[in-house]
Structure formats: C-alpha cells, structure tokens
Amino acid sequence: MTTTPSSPSTRYIRRLHLRIRSLAALGILATALLAGLITALPFYHAARSGIERTSQLSAETQAEALHHQFKRYQDITRQLNGRTDIRDRLADYARGDISLEALSAFTTPRLADAMAQAPDLVGLIRLGPDGELVSRIGKAPADAMPSHDSQEGYPCRLYLLEQRDVLVQSCSPIVTPEGERLGRDIAFFQADSLLALLADTERFGEGAKLRLRTPRGQQVLMLGPEGPVLSRFDTLDNPEETVQVTLQAALGDRGWELLVAVPSQRFHDEALQLLLWPALAILLLALGGTWVVSSALHPLLARVDRQARELEASDQKLRLAASVFRNAQEAIAITSPRHAIIDANPAFANHLGYTAQALIGRPMKALLAWHTDSSARLKHGLKHLEENGTWQGEVRYRCANGDILVALQTVSAVRNGDGETLRYIHIFNDVTEQRAAEEMVRHQALHDELTGLPNRAQLEQHLERALHQCRLTGKRLAVLFMDLDHFKEVNDTLGHQAGDRLLQAVSERLQANLRAEDMLARLGGDEFVIVVEPIQAVDNAARVASNVVEALTTPFVIGDTPLTIGVSVGIAIFPADGSDGVSLLQAADAAMYRAKAAGRNTWCLYSPPSAMQNT
Q1: What is the CA angle 291-294-300, rounded to 5?
Q2: Which of 162, 191, 574, 585 is the most exposed, having the fewest neighbouring CB atoms within 10 Å of its CB?
C-alpha cells in the first residue's frame, strides 16, 4: 500500500500548529510561574500581617479578661467600706466618741466576715482618718502603702511574697454619705486568676511570654521557670533569645498593660505555611493548564478562522450591551449559577466601596451582613429564585469600610433554550437612609429620650410576652415600681439640667446592678420599673429591691456636687398580686406608696386592702 506524500503547505500548517501549541504552553507555564514569584512576596507580607493582627486581637482579648478581673477587685474593695454599721462606728471615732481600741474590736470581726464572702480576698488593712491602723487582717505585706491616685479602688500595686504568692493591692477611701473622708481600706487579693491568664500562652504559640505591667512601668509581673517573678524594670528583650515581636494591649484606661513577647520566627513560619499550599496549587494548575491548552489548541486552530468572523459580527452587540451595563445608575452584578460574581458595574462597586476588579470571583454571600434570621431568609430566597427565576426582597450588605448598606434587590435568572441557568442578574437600589429613618422612628416610639431606657409602651409589650411565657411554664415574675426620694429637691436647688444628669446616672447604676435578662424601664419623671423574671421565691425579688435601695442611697456626684437621694420600692408578684400587666403595675405602685409612708429608702411587698385593714 502506497502513501500519498504530504504537500508543502500541509506540512507547513502542521509545523505552524505545533509551534503555536508549544509557544502557548510555554507562555502559560512561564506566566504562571512569573506571576507566582511576583505575588509571593506581597502575599507573604499580607499573611504575616494577618497573623500579627490575629495575635494582637488575642492579646487584647487576654487584656480584657485581666481588666474584668481587676474591676472585680475594685468592686469588692468598694463594697468593703459600704457597710453602714462599720462606717458609722468609724465616724464615731473620727468625732472622738469612741477609742481606737473599741473601734478596732468592733471593726475587725465584721470585716473578717465580709472578707469571707470573697474567696480571693486574703488581706485587708483599714486606716483611720489620720492614717492610724484600725485593723489588719489576713495576708498584708508590712510595706503596704495606700494609693493616692485619683483612680483609687482600681488595683495599684503588686506584691511577691516569700512563698511565691502574688498579691494585688487595691485601695478605696471610706467616705460618709455627705462626702467626708473617714479613712481608707487597703485590700489584698490572691492573684491566682491573673497568673492563670499569664500562663495561658497557647494561642500565641511556643516560646511566647506574657508580662503584666503596672501603670508607668514601675512593676512587671511574669512567670519564670520557678514561679512568678516581680521586677522593677521591663526587661522584655533577652540577647540570648531569638528576635521577638512585642504586642501591647491596655487594660481599659487605667494605665496597666499586657505585654506579649512572641518569637518573630513563629510569624515567619506560619506565613510560609499559609503560602505553601497556594504555591503548590498554582504550580499544579499551571502544569495542568499547560497540558490542557496544548491539547485543546489542536482542534481549535481549525475553527479559529470561522470563529473570528462570527466574533466580529457579534462584537458590536457586545459593545452596546457593555456600554449600557457600565453606565447604568442602578447597581448591577452578574453572577454564576453558584452565585460567584462574574462582573459588576461601577455603580455596584461604588455603593459597596470596592473596586470592580476586587469583586470578581467573590461569592455574593460573602458581601452580606449576617444577622439572626439571615440564613433562613437566604434559603427561602434561593428556593423562590430557583422555582420562579426571579426574586425581590431586602438585602443587607457589609461595605468595605464596615458600614451596613440596606438594598432593595431584584435577582433574575438568565437561562438557555433547555431551561438551564447560565447567569443571575442582580440589581439593587440603596434604601439605607430610608430604613435608618424608619428604625429611628421605631426606636423613639419605644425608648425614653433622656435615659435611652425602654418607655411605658415597650414595658407593656415586654410584660405581655413575659406573662404569657410564665402562664405556659407556671413560673412567677416580679414587678418593682420605684420612685426616687428627694429628687424634686435636686431640681429645685440645682436646676433641671442637673436633675436630668442625675436621672441618667441613676439609670446607669440600676442597669449595673441588674441581670442581663431583667428589664429596666422609665415611666417618666423619677419613676422606674424593673421586671424580674423568672423568680423562684419572693425573696428573690426582695433581694433585688434591697440591692436597688443600697445602690441608690450611695452618694452621686453631679458635676462637682455630691448628691444623696433615696428610693422607695414597691413589689408585686405574678400571679399572686395580679394576672395582667396593668394590675401588676397598679399593685407595685400601691406597695411603693406604702414604702414611702414607712419612712422611704425601703421596699414593701404588695398587700391587698383587706389584708391591710386586718393588720
């Protein structure tokens, strides 16, 4: 069998095809490798910066935990000198009515009882008006000195005892309701919880060290191989150790700082690990793409000429469509069937604060601002879109700067002749300002303008829901009706502006003494209501009322003026004192007037009129 020799033109075309395929494959491989090399360094720095930011956030979280522990020390120290009987006896001593020995004999056992309520409070020194020692209880360093800092009450100093025990010193002045200084408490707390936080270095990796630095860097607490170490200088850098990155996180605004020394090698290694798999993936994709392109070019080259003519005919139509897409005032995005962004016009990118190129390839759901019912609404919308080919609804986007954009969005499917979805067209209008205005109107309708607390309307709604739940579960709830004592005198003497500031201070102090699930509302004037639910016994409500009376009888400082007010509290219990919100509020109001009649600064449970007549 003879074979017809190939013509020169056939051989030329074959060589040309082989050359094109080879050059294309080499070009793709070289481009991928070059792009990988060029982008590796920025990606490395970005990955390292991300790891450092994550570590900084971890340090700030650790510092926040330390800050909350210190605030607890502060609260305990202030509570020690809030007991009226001990403070009154100290006032008697300051006036010369009793001797120092009698004061000490009376004060010491009562302070010891109070200390027993705080397990990590291990020592206490009480000083008199002239700094004389009244009581010394538990572990109290001999060189302990009171703090004269303006932030008295917040921990001010650390002590390392011979047994490697670490104590935290907290100071608080003792003052009368009229603002007269009677003495000072110096409290000492066992710092085991602080040491546990300093020992928790797992999130920062191996070799990390945590230090706690006092204000102005006078003391540094750290954990050494043999236990806690307390030094006078911040010696974070050790020449024998590897180069370190030091993270700093403030503990509130009190001057304390948490210092975290992390070996810089850790950031380097983790950044490289993050880049390893993407680099391998790029290489494999480049090799795979090279093979695919080389194989695909062979049959495609025969169709290039015909397709070129067809493309030229459709080019004008595409240009027209692209012009409409780019210049439209509405925000428009085109996504794949899996809702990944294929293209976005300038209006869409500008609304969200991104460049159009930065949006390409991102899933639409990554741009959404998620909240409680987002997942359910998204599933419902996707189901409606698949079934009907279109959907319209409200969507919340998170912009590049963190702002929330509320959009009224329409999504339409683009399908081929077989009904298969090819693209989705997303068009939205920004309704953020409109929704914000509506939300402000709703908020103003349900909240007190002065204090920001729920108003009567929201209180009634909350009571209705809470009572319905209690009826279903058989549990009880309590309504506490409060009326401030001597508030009118503040308005009359200092003016309404001072009265408003006092009401704001009262609401803040009440919220600080309530649980998160309890509701505090202002009815108007100086009347407040607390809903406590659920309660196991009437004593639970009585304890809340006692805490409220104690909190509000503690002096306030408005401007530079110390003010002492009181509160009368009436308590009504569901279902014993009323079956609905109106009757419960009326019962609590009546009980409050009984508390006023009983001398104010107290609380009373509701008693029916028949029971009061019998008594």
Answers
A1: 135
A2: 162
pLDDT at 150: 47
376/79 Cα distance (integer angstroms): 47
What are the percentages of helix, strand and coil residues in the chain, rounded to 5?
50, 25, 25
Question: CA nearest 159: which of 230, 210, 217, 213?
Answer: 230
Q: What is the DSSP annotation of 276-293? A: HHHHHHHHHHHHHHHHHH
Residue 248 corresponds to which tokens in the numbers above?
A: 């700093």
pLDDT exceeding 70 applies to what percent of the chain?
83
Q: If 0-12 CB within 10 Å is exposed, 13-18 middle and 19+ buried, where does residue 155 land?
A: buried
The predicted structure's pLDDT at residue 239 = 47
SS3 assignment for 295-359: HHHHHHHHHHHHHHHHHHHHHHHHHHHHHHHHHCCCEEEEECCCCEEEEECHHHHHHHCCCHHHH
What are the residue ranges of helices labelled H in 120-191?
Answer: none
Q: Each residue of 411-448: pLDDT tens digit?
A: 888 888 787 888 888 887 777 777 777 777 777 778 88
Evaluate if pTM is beyond 0.70. Answer: no
Q: What per-residue confidence (pLDDT) applies to 167?
A: 86
Interaxial angle between packed helices 496-512 and 487-494, expressed in degrees from 0 to 180 and rounded to the nearest 10: 140
CA angle 512, 517, 519 (to 5 degrees): 70
Residues ≥6 apart with Cβ < 8 Å to 352: 359, 367, 397, 399, 400, 405
Q: How far is CA 524 from the centre of its chain?
A: 31
Question: What is the overall mean pLDDT for the chain?
Answer: 80
| Cα(206)–Cα(391) distance, integer angstroms | 52
56 phi/psi in degrees, rounded to 5:
-65, -40
Q: Which residues of 116-145 are buried (b: 16+ CB within 10 A; e: fewer)?
A: eebebbbbbbbbbbeeeebbbbbbbbeebe
CA pair distance 460, 493, nearest whole angstrom: 34
What are the angstrom distances between the C-alpha of 388 and each of 108, 333, 414, 415, 421? 79, 19, 12, 12, 12
pLDDT beyond 70 at 541: yes
How high is the pLDDT of residue 260? Answer: 84
Of residues 518 and 418, more confidently modeled: 518
How confident is the model over 174-187, as pLDDT tens digits?
Answer: 888 888 888 888 88
The amino acid sitting at 435 is: R
Length of the chain: 615
Q: Find the DSSP H helices in 372-455.
A: 374-388, 432-446
For 456, residues 6+ apart whose C-beta sits below 8 A from its C-beta are 521, 523, 524
Cβ 571 vs Cβ 588: under 8 Å: yes
Instruction: Identify the band that residue 240 occupies on the pLDDT scale cut at 50, 70 and 90.
Output: very low
pLDDT exceeds cutoff 50 at 453:
yes
Residue 607 has pLDDT above 70, yes or no: yes
CA distance 18 to 522: 84
Tokens 């401030």 correspond to what residue?
A: 484
